Amino acid sequence: xxxxxxDVNHNKNMKTEDILCxxxxxxxxDFSKLLEKPRLLNIDRQRSLxxxxxxxxxxxxxxxxxxxxxxxNSSRVFEPLDFICxxxxxxxxxxxxxxxxxxxxxxxxxxxxxALRRSLVYFRGQPVGTIAALDNxxxxxxxxxxFVRDFVPSGLAxxxxxxxxxxKNFILKTLRLxxxxxxxxxxxLGEGVMPASxxxxxxPVRNNETLIADFGESAIGRVAPVxxxxxxxxxxxxxxxxxxxxxxxxxxxxxxGMRLILSLCLSEGFDTFPTLLCADxxxxxxRRMGVxxxxxxxxxxxxxxxxCALLLLKQDDEGKEFIERIVKRLHALSYHMRSYFxxxxxxxxxxxxxxxxxxxHTAVNKFNVMPDSLPEWIFDFMPVxxxxxxxxxxxxxxxxxxxxxxxxIAILSSLATPEQSTAIMDLIESRWEELVGEMPLKxxxxxxxTHEWRIITGCDPKNTRWxxxxxxxxxxxxxxxxxxCVKTGxxxxxxxxxxxxxxxxxxxHWPEYYDGKLGRYIGKQARKAQTWSIAGYLVAKMMLEDPSxxxxxxxxxxKQMKPLLRRSNSWTL
Length: 573
Ligand code: GLC
Known about the structure:
Invertase that cleaves sucrose into glucose and fructose. The structure is a single chain. The protein is of the alpha+beta class. It has one domain (107-182, 189-552): Glycosyltransferase. Helix content is 40%, strand content 9%. Helix 4 crosses helix 20 and helix 19 (491-502) packs across helix 20 (531-545).
């Protein structure tokens, strides 16, 4: 039933030039060509880390597979992404990075750097992270903490600017927090859980500093963050890729930290799906929003973290066992996601015509989804060209909402096939007003209202329609959109979005989120000077200026993981 129907001719970016284009003409180029140009330097080191593919690591697969893997391995050339990141951290200026293209940077860039530096948090004299928001006008809640997920764009900005130390400090400090004993009431959490956030406590009497962390025991709703551990692995790989310094990831404590995170999410149980079962609010959307079950954000981050771990784990006795489990899980996960989470016009029409109450292996409607559960809005929202990974799939329940983070990470991790990646970008272009509007970018679409809002959010006054997590617009998502645009060879889309953001972000003092159908209003309870809005903007800017930064956060498709997809030349029904 679930097959991908993509018009292979509908690739707007197919170009024949195979030269590296000057930046001004860059948007005319196919990004893959850019990736092909070897730029460096410390190639051997990069190679040992990134060349490992699923085919090389096909332990546990059938002997037929293994032989084939060896064959492929011997003739293997570098993955394009092996070349695209200089391992030598390049500093483009301390406070105000200079433009590599010779153009003056936007005046906002200098302001953003200053604001980002003001958000630095120090522990015993060393910078270890950035505070979530520097807004003194509002009650702090927990915005005075360093959030693991929020630090990712900050860390990337520093890496891109040739300042890797803070990222290293952050990785090592959070690793120490992971080893704490974590209890919520009388219940002990898994050893591998990474904190949602931490803060530095100054004791003026004893004149010392300590760290305190929150693993969900103080969070609203008491949910442990599932995404933190994944982001930690993703950032460790970005650090390694950007600096060429493999020694951090090779530390026994980093290897152990990764294994602990992986133990939590690879454990076997009652699951019949390879996706990860989660509680509501365990990720960026950290309160009740109907994202329990198998939310796309977590599944995409899970996939990305598994692929990063595969590149970072040592092939020692302990590492090998995990590598084997990761390889198997990646195969199953990509198949499941690409088949069952994918929605385009053809698939939508199939669901619309589903028979229900089928039994046995021949069932087409495997999860017994009722066509009546299709929401009205989806029929207009779905463009002729385009598609996306839907929010959630579980028995008799498909959440058809579009979520930004999960779809962008699906592109960056190559969970999405190249055709699916193109389709996701096509959809963003055709639904520009809905998803970008007057401020990029919607965290999800559409908002829930009235009865649905009452039931699903539990009457949450912060998550009213078109606000906060319920269809609000979050500037931080700009970096993810930009990275996805660069990877799919569509930088002009990111440029358009950035221009919109630049008309307001600084003037509005870098709000956390915007409200309204078009994102016209500063969010009702949005913090100002929200660090990830600032860092997200900087990362987007730097990535557009120097697309080779993409290598830190993107992984090419593993050719051995080809999905079982049927292609058709037509989108028509
Ligand atoms: C809010 C967001 C969460 C973020 C935190 C700190 O709780 O929902 O994603 O990490 O603020 O900025």
